[in-house]
Amino acid sequence: MSKTLSDLGWSSHFAAQHAVNPTCTPHRINAVHRDRLIGLNALGDTSDLTPDRSTGEFAVGDWILADDQNRIRHLLERKSLLQRRAAGTGAQVQLIAANVDVLYIVSSCNADFNLARLERYLALAHQAGCYPVVVLTKADSCPDPENYASQASSLVRFLTVLTVNALEASEIDPILSWCPAGQTAALVGSSGVGKTTLANAMTGQAGTTAGIREDDARGRHTTTHRALHPMRNGGWLIDTPGMRALRLMDAQNGVDEVFSDLLELAARCRFSDCQHQAEPGCAVQEAIANGVIEPDRLARWHKLRREDQRNSETLAQSRARDKAFGKMVRSVMHDKKSRSRH
Ligand SMILES: Nc1nc2c(ncn2[C@@H]2O[C@H](COP(=O)(O)OP(=O)(O)OP(=O)(O)O)[C@@H](O)[C@H]2O)c(=O)[nH]1
Ligand SMILES: [Zn+2]
């Protein structure tokens, strides 16, 4: 199948950056390994790319420019970036996916449905720079899916909310239409809500999320996880293992965006540092008293801000700790040196 760059997600944003280095060839990153990257080019061919810096600085979905030896020369500025704190290692940031246009936030019309969880994912989408689309699955096994949909819609003005039976093929097209040809999507949501079912239906392939076996240079079988999957409508679905455990981090702006109604009210509080608890002249409490705002929503805002602050603070604190440790090591070395001189 012949492809063009725009089929792969290329746009004027990247073309402008390519114009500065016209002799290099654009590739889109399809897999990130410890020592090399796999890219897709305009013809749909994959190539092994040699990075010019640590591969941890690249994400699946990135656009890079390579020379004729497939050595990476430039990493193009991203349109969006999903990242998370690396598991177990304290404060290391791990890049999950870049240049994702649409983030499908998947929940289901049952006990998984939770407004706080949706708000958390919405904040994440806004922070990363992706357009959020809420997909509520299992509408077929629920007597009143519209009730779930209207609760979700009430969270953010003009929020797109779709209810589906993910097992019914004819219900997938309306979901796909939010990520047309040449655009890139990703799915987030808790375990069991139907992400795999949706991914398979959107790509028309079973096992979208499984690794692909291939021979490496020495003829050994290796399992490579290719993360960019073509969807039936010409869009792309990015699926990376890290996507399943995304947490909020450094997402103050994203949280503010999701709670912009409260933020607008807060601007009218008498005290600029109002905590919206019991202060006199609090416009938020007044809106609650007038039934304009649900008290639960204020509580969820406080909680999400605290959660983001906690995660982000730990990041700053742990950097400070690393610094202090470095200082300590240096001073011990210094002591040792001065002792050995005596
Ligand atoms: N009735 C009905 N069942 C669904 C729907 N969507 C998913 N399921 C079923 O729900 C179960 C879980 O779906 P999965 O697609 O495996 O969920 P997942 O989000 O990928 O789960 P993890 O892999 O654990 O993250 C499967 O048995 C699906 O067949 C739906 O819209 N309606
Ligand atoms: Zn207030």
TrEMBL record:
It comes from the Bacteria. It is found in: Cytoplasm. Keywords: Cytoplasm, GTP-binding, Hydrolase, Metal-binding, Nucleotide-binding, Ribosome biogenesis, RNA-binding, rRNA-binding, Zinc. The keyword ATP-binding does not apply. The keyword Phosphoprotein does not apply. Pfam families: RsgA_GTPase. Its cofactor is Zn(2+). InterPro entries: G_CP_dom (IPR030378), P-loop_NTPase (IPR027417), Ribosome_biogen_GTPase_RsgA (IPR004881), RsgA_GTPase_dom (IPR010914). SUPFAM superfamilies: P-loop containing nucleoside triphosphate hydrolases (SSF52540). Residues 79-246 form the CP-type G domain. One of its GO terms (cellular component) is cytoplasm. Transmembrane segments: none annotated. GO terms for molecular function: GTP binding; GTPase activity; metal ion binding; rRNA binding. Residues 205-225, 309-342 are annotated as: Disordered. Its EC number is 3.6.1.-. It is an enzyme of class 3 (hydrolase). One of its GO terms (biological process) is ribosomal small subunit biogenesis. GTP binds at T137, K138, A139, D140, G189, S190, S191, G192, V193, G194, K195, T196, T197. Belongs to the TRAFAC class YlqF/YawG GTPase family. RsgA subfamily. NCBIfam families: ribosome small subunit-dependent GTPase A (TIGR00157). PANTHER family: SMALL RIBOSOMAL SUBUNIT BIOGENESIS GTPASE RSGA. This is Small ribosomal subunit biogenesis GTPase RsgA. It comes from Ruegeria faecimaris. The lineage of its organism: Bacteria, Pseudomonadati, Pseudomonadota, Alphaproteobacteria, Rhodobacterales. The gene is rsgA.
